[in-house]
Amino acid sequence: FQSLFNLLEFRRLVLNFNPPANAQDLPRNQKEHRNLPFMRELRYLFALLVGSKRKYVDPSRAVEILKDAFKSNDSQQQDVSEFTHKLLDWLEDAFQIKAEEERDGEKPKNPMVELFYGRFLAVGVLEGKKFENTEMFGQYPLQVNGFKDLHECLEAAMIEGEIESLHSENSAKSGQEHWFTELPPVLTFELSRFEFNQALGRPEKIHNKLEFPPILYLDRYMHKNREITRIKRDEIKRLKEYLTVLQQRLERYLSYGSGPKRFPLVDVLQYALEFASSKPVCTSPVDDLGASAPASGTLPPQIPPSTIEQQGPSSSDVPSTSPVQRSVIHKPFTQSRIPPDLPMHPAPRHITEEELSVLEGCLHRWRTEVENDTRDLQESISRIHRTIELMYSDKTMVQVPYRLHAVLVHEGQANAGHYWAYIYDHHQNRWMKYNDISVTKSTWEELERDSFGGYRNASAYCLMYINDKEQYLIQEEFNKETGQMLVGMDTLPSDLRDYVKEDNKRFEKELEEWDAELAQKAQQEKLLSQIPRAPAPSPAPVQAGEPEYLEQPSRTDISKHLKEDSVQAINKALAEQEDRGPEAIMDTVAFKMLMIDCTLLHYLKGNRTLRNVLNICAFLSAIKLEYTRLLKLAQEDPPPECDYRLRHAIVYFIQNQAPKKIIERTLLEQFGDHNLSFDERCRNIMKVAQAKLEMIKPDEVNMEEYERWHQDYRHFRETTMFLMVGLEFFQKK
């Protein structure tokens, strides 16, 4: 809806749609019964989008009418592409009714058809027989899997089967080409990002990256350009075949060898050159061992191995040691033949200066040749890529430009997710992000990241392009008499202008009622604050510099002092935890409660860290501390100037003997309140409470009874408040 609303021509068509003059006689059939109410609601919706003073408008009434069309026998919801198809069908039907009424013997023109529908010519061969068919299309479906950009998707969609058979006289092969004969001003591509997994028996989302340009030239797909396109396709095919050969050759240079480990050939030659140039530095195995042996077993390095073999160890050279020490150093070499001298580093054993000179010259030359060959191959590959990219950039192939107008994005998997849209503001020349009631400025870089896919689970499923030469699609409306541009309410027909004015009046009244209600609440809170409260320990001070957070309404009407009570209980529980240490906690009542609490163990499933165990123990301790405090208040006799029931619903519940499950859930909602998310320690406890709430089964707590108890408590507080306010007014006469 938002993508279409921002097409000014489409907006004008919807806003200026007038039901047929004989509408009072309708419905004559089911289509009219359905489409005319839908158009009425769509006009109201668009009018509110133009002139409402509200931050956002509710599209439910228009959507509810549409939604009925999607209910199949088993009441399963259809996907979003089906929704768009149905939307365009209904728009076409509604405008067709009007067009037929206004025709003067001529074939009626349907503006929706002219705006969104095009035609293509299917030329092909079926079992050796040639055929040609002209077909109309609205949304053009494109496969995503296996393609890297939009042009590759389009090329694959325009050719089916064996393309060569189309140009041969005698062929039994089948195939066809599609050529656009007429493109619509608004061209919508439906990207097929879902496929059915036969093995798993369920649909899956395709997260592959697919690039698309802000300006799309469609000349190569036009029927009038088919001959030159075929020539270019053949040339691209030839270049890609040559490119494959060059890439294979380059791969041999960059990954040389036949084993599992491969290296660039230029590096292999460099290693060979370094090996050939290395000088052998010989050493004996005994020397190697002696260098690392203990000091008591070290041999003098100046004694050659042959001397050791002939003379054996002398008492002057080797200190008198135990047989074990002597065997560690000498036994392996005295009982076996000493190997020849080994170089410390790999190096040629025997090579003459002349041989080395020839070999170094060859290796240097070969390395240079390989470097040059590699560079030439890389440059050739880059040139071919560039040639392919520029194949359709000549003047004859950039005459049909389409500008990207909107990108519809889905984040999630095949069975669930979230939708939003990027829509181009053609007058401010910037992208806007439409995400539910939030509309924010955006950039092409953000659009790329969210829409191309491959980065996370978000990707585009629908692209809306508009003919860049058809400026009427996005052109503002001007007053015919003054020539001034019409904006806002001035663009609306009189009936819609009145409708929006009435809605704005209702909104202003809602604001007044809201302000009055806030003022009354402020007055009531002021009076309540004057009621003395029993002294309570002040909550832990919030450190300066912590970020502010928004107060959010909660089911238990948690007030400021109630939040302070929760924070106080949490801090006390955490302080006790820190004093005891992790080991002592294992012996606490809270830990034993955790061990028998299947719900919280389920919460820990897959994440059973000590930190989470401690969080849950702190949560259980905080719950126990808070309940103990409230139970004590409920059992005490309050002073004449104080009523503990006004302090907390649970005090009221205990005194009125509410069921245990009602009290437990109320405590959980107190600690699961979002307003506790201002601090990391409180947030951890809040998450545990929320997890516990989620695990409560419907049959465990009667929610109607739960709501009744809380309604009773609200009535009790309101009655007390009215009594206090009334007495205040009475005293002031």
TrEMBL record:
Residue runs in coiled coils: 497-524
Name of the gene: Usp25
CDD domains in the cross-refs: Peptidase_C19I (cd02665)
UniProt-recorded name of the protein: ubiquitinyl hydrolase 1
EC number: 3.4.19.12
Region (Disordered): 287-325
Taxonomic lineage: Eukaryota, Metazoa, Chordata, Craniata, Vertebrata
Keywords per UniProt: Coiled coil, Hydrolase, Nucleus, Protease, Thiol protease, Ubl conjugation pathway
Biased composition (Low complexity): 313-324
Compartments (UniProt record): Nucleus
Top class in the EC scheme: hydrolase
Source organism of the structure: Prunella fulvescens (Brown accentor)
